[in-house]
Amino acid sequence: MTKYIFILAMLMCSFAYSQNTLKVIVKDNKTQKELIGVSVQIQNTKLSGITDENGAIEFNSVENGDQKIIFNFLGYEEFSLNVIFPKQNGKILKVQLITSEEEELDEVVVQSTRTSRTIRNTPTRIESIDAEELDEKANMKPANVSMVLHESTGLQVQQTSATSGNASIRVQGLDGRYTQLLKDGYANFGNFASGLSILEIPPLDLQQVEVIKGPSSTLYGGGAIAGVINFISKTPKEKGEYNFILNQSNITQTNIGGYASQRKGKFGYSILGLVNFQKAFDVDDDDFSETPKSHNFTINPRLFYYPSENLSFMLGNSFTKTNMEGGDMHVIAGDANLYHAYFEENKTFRNTTTFELDKKFESQSSFKLKQSLSFFDRVINIPDYEFSGINVNAFTDASYVINKEKYTLISGANFVYDNFEQRNSGVLDAKSFTTGMYVQHTWDVSETIKLENGLRFDNVSYSNNNFSKNQTFFLPKISALFKINSQWSSRIGAGLGYKIPTVFTEQTESVQYQNVLALQNVKAEKSIGGTADINYKVNILSDLKFSVNQMFFITKISKPLVLENDAVYSFFVNASDPVLSKGFETNIKLIFREDFKLFAGYTFTDATAKYLKGNQFLPLLPNNKVNLALIYEKENNFKMGLEGYFTDEQFLYDGTKTPTYWEFGFMVEKTLWRNFAFFINFENFTDTRQSNYKRVVNDPHNKPTFDDIWTHTEGFTINGGVKIKL
């Protein structure tokens, strides 16, 4: 009996000895900070878990032998090591993870804040649409960036014409005039040009698009009440880039474009060329076009000179010419009569010359001078009426940036001249001159807290044939970034803004400025607003990454400029009560094995005009919007995506409600021979369009009126083509 007890005791000791304890602490290899939420797994066992608030994890009952331990964490390279058990008891295994190359690519240097910081280290909340996503959106609409903006959370492309397709961009529910559109930091898209701006910016030469939601006036002045959208062009690299696209759609649109750039020694160049042809298309057979007959031509050459690695010059010129004719299909075809008489014709000419000097100093400080001169000529024709004029805009900005280990200081001044002259009558002639000075300080209080504050001083003189006014604005702004740990971070920001009065709004654009009176004794609109968000990211499993961003916003506009009507004319007045827009956005991202990506976005917007009696909701603004996208991609091989968008009820200007609707799209792209990619896109394949509910055009046929545009007018479209990258 004693013999058996002894054998059993020996077996128990042997078993106990074969069960080991492992304690691990995981840190960032650069900062040496403990990483919370790292996924740790012992291969071929059921032993797994995540690190605690001290970056630590402990495993019990690890069997003897060679065990492979795998570490995964969002933003870091996967790491594995082999440990032979039994090992010395009590010895803690210390592991350091390295930031992944993919994360470095995601960590783009944002340009809109001029601080040369990555998004993760910038207190201002910035959303960046990268080159890969822009490339996907170019498959859907190569002619312009409207699709890029339409499918982004919190942004709304508002069509203003049923027959010509003119559109503006809204941020957080506010009218398009409150959003500052920039191309490489140049503000040349306001006032008379605003109704066509996003239709004349092609995506082919864009490196990224940066969106700042909320007050952004410190660096960009008036007009940035709702936010800033900066379209950033590619710059030449030592390795040449040569891209071409050919696209054809079932609604008879043809796009042919090319982009080329390269730097050789001290010189570099880039050139964009794009031609778009569109035949008039009537999807609902009501005799009126949903897309106009048009042709558009854009060419944008830029020359770069690098006397040294610390000094560069850029000189560019962008030229765009567009002719669009919509309306009665018989008129467009040249078969007009008394019954078939209505048309809407837009002819535009835009030329923008830009110059930039960039000087970097050994102290890591830099000086930048930007200058642009833009001419925008537009003629609008409808039966028995013409509106035309030329808008001249001159922009100069000089800034000096001081970069130190713990802070960045930007100071600068800019001058903006804007002049509109109406042909023939001159009724709406107007001009303005703005002198601005600004300073912005970004301070790294610690590794976990970054503060940014700024102040802008603007003096603005604006006038027309009726009156002239001079106003001064002090615009403070403050932002903060809190890196709670490797998984959690938060940003808050607030500031003031203003917008000088203009007759060029979405409402007046929709009536081609007919019977609109010149401004008289009105003041600039002023705003106060802010945003706050929180971010969370984690590796749920070794192959599944999850991240979520929850953002809240609020903006109040005092003395809003409101269009009123009498029996004949329309005119603007400052309302006594404000416009208030508030709500939140939720963005969720799931990535599985880097091949499958699921994006989900939800926007709730509660925007009201307090000056209205009864129903105070802003028109053409849904309370709820949902964006969904599922993408499968094998890099440089195959790509497909399924997208779905839900839009809630909207109030029209007459107070009636629209129905809710869904729209869906599907895209496939296949790369062959490395340089050729073939794509096909099924846009809105459920054929959601406004004419399914009610005709957009109202009788009489020869002098029609049009309903407000609240969804697609063209319905289901198919387009496909080829992209060549050399």
> How can the largest sheet be summarized?
22 strands, antiparallel, barrel
Number of helices: 7
CATH superfamily of the largest domain: TonB-dependent receptor, beta-barrel domain
Average pLDDT across residues?
88
Strand portion, in percent?
Answer: over 45%
Please report the total strand number as a whole number.
Answer: 39
Helix content, binned percent:
under 10%
Spans of at least 5 consecutive residues with low confidence: 1-17, 101-106
CATH topology of the largest domain: Maltoporin, Chain A
| Count of folded domains | 3
What is the level 1 CATH name of the largest domain? Mainly Beta
CATH architecture of the largest domain: Beta Barrel
Please characterize this protein's 3D structure.
The protein is globular. The protein starts with a helix and ends with a strand. It has three domains: 2-100, Carboxypeptidase-like, regulatory domain (Immunoglobulin-like, Sandwich), CATH 2.60.40; 103-231, Ferric Hydroxamate Uptake Protein, Chain A, domain 1; 232-725, TonB-dependent receptor, beta-barrel domain (Maltoporin, Chain A), CATH 2.40.170. It is 7% helix and 55% strand. The strands form seven sheets. The chain has a 22-stranded antiparallel barrel. The longest helix is centred in the first third of the chain and has 17 residues, at 2-18. With 726 residues, it is mainly beta.
